[in-house]
C-alpha cells in the first residue's frame, strides 16, 4: 500500500499480539490501542510492555489485569509529547 506511517493501530488478535509486535520497529506508529492477553504468562506480558515502552507512553488504561487476564491499554508515541 506504500504506507510509511500509521496514525492509529487497533490490535485485538486474541493472543497473537506477541508475534505481531514483539521485537518489531514500532517507531512509525502514532498510537496503538491494544488488547493484550496474558495467556503466555506474566513474563511474556511484561516483555511486551517493556518493548512498547521503548516507543510509547501510556495514554489510557481501561484495565490491566494480571496474567492470565488481559489488558486494554492505549499507547501514544513518545514523539507526540
Give your account of this protein's structure.
- The protein has two helices and four strands.
- Helix 1 links the parallel strand 1 and strand 2.
- The termini are far apart.
- Strands 1-2-4-3 form a four-stranded mixed sheet.
- Helix content is 23%, strand content 40%.
- It is α+β, with helices and mostly antiparallel strands and 81 residues long.
- The radius of gyration is 12 Å and the shape is globular.
- It has helices at 17-21, 42-55, and strands at 6-11, 29-37, 56-64, 70-77.
Topology:
Layout: E1 6-11, H1 17-21, E2 29-37, H2 42-55, E3 56-64, E4 70-77
Parallel strand pairs: 1-2
Antiparallel strand pairs: 2-4, 3-4
Number of helical regions: 2
Question: How would a textbook summarize the main sheet?
Answer: 4 strands, mixed
Determine the strand fraction and express it as a percent band: 35-45%
State the secondary-structure class: alpha+beta
Quantity of strands, as a count: 4
From the alpha carbons, calculate the radius of gyration and give it in angstroms.
12 Å
Question: Which spans of ≥5 residues are poorly predicted at pLDDT below 50?
Answer: none
- Record the strand order, biggest sheet: 1-2-4-3
Instruction: Give the oligomeric state of the chains in this entry, treating copies of one chain as homo and distinct chains as hetero.
Output: single chain
Shape: globular
Amino acid at each position: 500500500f506504500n504506507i510509511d506511517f500509521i496514525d492509529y493501530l487497533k490490535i485485538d488478535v486474541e493472543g497473537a499480539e506477541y508475534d505481531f509486535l514483539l521485537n518489531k520497529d514500532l517507531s512509525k506508529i502514532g498510537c496503538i490501542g491494544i488488547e493484550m492477553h496474558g495467556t503466555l504468562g506474566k513474563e511474556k506480558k511484561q516483555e511486551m510492555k517493556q518493548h512498547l515502552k521503548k516507543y510509547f507512553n501510556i495514554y489510557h488504561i481501561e484495565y490491566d489485569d494480571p496474567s492470565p487476564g488481559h489488558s486494554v491499554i492505549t499507547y501514544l508515541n513518545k514523539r507526540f509529547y
